[in-house]
Amino acid sequence: MVKADAYGLGAGEVAPVLAKAGCGTFFVAHLGEGVALRKIIGPDPAIFVLNGGPLDDAALALFQGHRLEPVLSSLPEVAFWARARQSGAALPACAVHFDTGMNRLGLQAGDGAATAAVAPHLVMSHFIVSETPADPHNNAQIARFAEIRAAFPHARASLANSSGIFLGAAALHDLVRPGFALYGGNPCPGSPNPMRAVVQLDVPLLMLRDVAQGETIGYGGHFTAPRAMRVATLPLGYADGFARLAAAAPDTGAFAMLEGKACPFLGRVSMDLSVIDVSAIPETALRPGMMAQVLGPAISIDECAARSGRIGYEVLTSLGRRFERIYR
């Protein structure tokens, strides 16, 4: 999965590395993403466009010209693709998506016969709650999808997203679709993360200052210093994708790591700036320009998200373009 600019990390840098490592199948959300990705990874890998429709002649020309495979999710999309095939157009292969419980996109189980004319290369569906293995929806979807895929003996099948990969053999089929996990997110919430952290976000200290007991910090005066404190200002705000309410409370909100210490964010995050509590660090160890870590080995994507009232997907896809990005 390299949709949403490889989950905010840069498809132009991520996709070629995956292709070099042997990945031969990529998924994007929109047709425009597919066109851009084809220019990045060259002619060989398969590229599926999840939001395949609505289809028209202009979209058809792009699918043809860039050898992109639409994921057809409705009978009108299937009918359009079938008419194009019957007209003799040189079309790439296609996939069909069946809804097994999400009620978002997808054909119904009884629509299988109507898809025969498009000869799908892939049949797929999507889990509702695969991050909770014991949830009964998972087994129900696995069973529904098994029945559907039986009608497509010559097509590959795909059901498992990142968390679905860990649900056992019945969920795996021919192709799995790692997304969030590929970028270091935990596909098994409540258990140790089986994936390595791959994203680190460091920001410099702009200014150090002393705040007296009773003084407030940030817009609206939502935080009042309970004691004399030493704080540091960071060039990090909601314009950079950092949550405006990340500092809901010093003990439960987001924090940055500095000199091995967790430094809570204080007050309301503004557009370009935020403030952290550095009182626990000796004054002699602090200086403007030193780097505080906002994401990294000690602060996972998921923990930062939970402490900011978000989910890890939001943290990644919101990372702003003002950050200098270094790829190793």
Describe the structure concisely.
The chain has 328 residues and is α/β, with parallel strands linked by helices.
Helix and strand topology:
Blueprint: H1 3-7, H2 11-20, E1 25-28, H3 31-41, E2 46-49, H4 57-65, E3 69-72, H5 75-86, E4 95-97, E5 122-124, H6 136-149, E6 156-158, E7 201-204, E8 207-211, E9 216-217, E10 223-224, E11 229-234, E12 255-258, E13 261-266, E14 274-277, E15 291-295, H7 301-307, H8 312-317
Parallel strand pairs: 1-2, 2-3, 3-4, 4-5, 5-6
Antiparallel strand pairs: 7-15, 8-11, 9-10, 11-14, 12-13, 13-14
Please describe what this structure looks like.
The protein is α/β, with parallel strands linked by helices. The protein folds into two domains: 3-183, Alanine racemase (TIM Barrel), CATH 3.20.20.10; 201-317, Lyase, Ornithine Decarboxylase, Chain A, domain 1 (Beta Barrel), CATH 2.40.37. Helices cover 23% and strands 18% of the residues. It has eight helices and 15 strands. It has helices at residues 3-7, 11-20, 31-41, 57-65, 75-86, 136-149, 301-307, 312-317; strands at 25-28, 46-49, 69-72, 95-97, 122-124, 156-158, 201-204, 207-211, 216-217, 223-224, 229-234, 255-258, 261-266, 274-277, 291-295. A six-stranded parallel β-sheet has the order 1-2-3-4-5-6. The protein has a five-stranded antiparallel β-sheet with strand order 8-11-14-13-12, with no helix packed on it. A hairpin with a 5-residue loop joins strand 9 and strand 10 (223-224). The longest helix has 14 residues, at 136-149. The chain is elongated and about 75 Å long. It starts with a helix and ends in an 11-residue tail after the last helix.
